[in-house]
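The protein record filed below.
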Amino acid sequence: MTLGSEFWAGIIGAVVGASVGGFISFLIQRNNIKEARKERIDSEKKVEETLARILAVKTLRIFSNNSFLSSHIEECYLNVPANSHDNPFSFILPLTSMPDKIKFSAEEVSLIFSLKNDNLTNMMLSLAECHNSLSDSFALYGKKRDKFFHQMPAEMQGNVGTTYMDEEERKKREPQMVVMNNLINQIREMAERYTKTSEKALNLLNKLLDEQKGMKLKIELKEETIS
């Protein structure tokens, strides 16, 4: 039995049709995979950029709080005669409130490591802890100072009060005075040092995010106080 040309034409047509259909399906599938990959990459980039912004805002907040506290202490020094500087507890006023504690999440720390800069990593990993320690130390100073002056008679001139102690009272309270002076001297040095470190970290973070991630972050903190 001889197969006719129509039979072979049908077979060939079916094969070619199946091949073309399969190729078209392959192209559609490949295009879908490309689109899905592009969407995933875009989504990951948006997540990373959001994370970078949060990290930058936290770092800026740390710098701002450190800087404000340092400026507050230095301003208190400027407002009194130099011969009063031996007892800084007597003129450095506590703040009515302190800033909230700041903590970097695991994702934010991972982003810091991804920038592969030892200087930035070393600064950033201690930045939040130093900020929180400084805040806690100044809050402790305020409590000790308030307790010291509590119920002591004072002569008020506006919001400024002047207290008087006789020699016996002074000797009795001198250990407390020494503790507060030492504490505020340490806080003053910490505030100045942490301000410089946090400013360096902020500038380096923005620089590396721009160079390595193509993120030009323009983040500005509205001027405000933490008191």
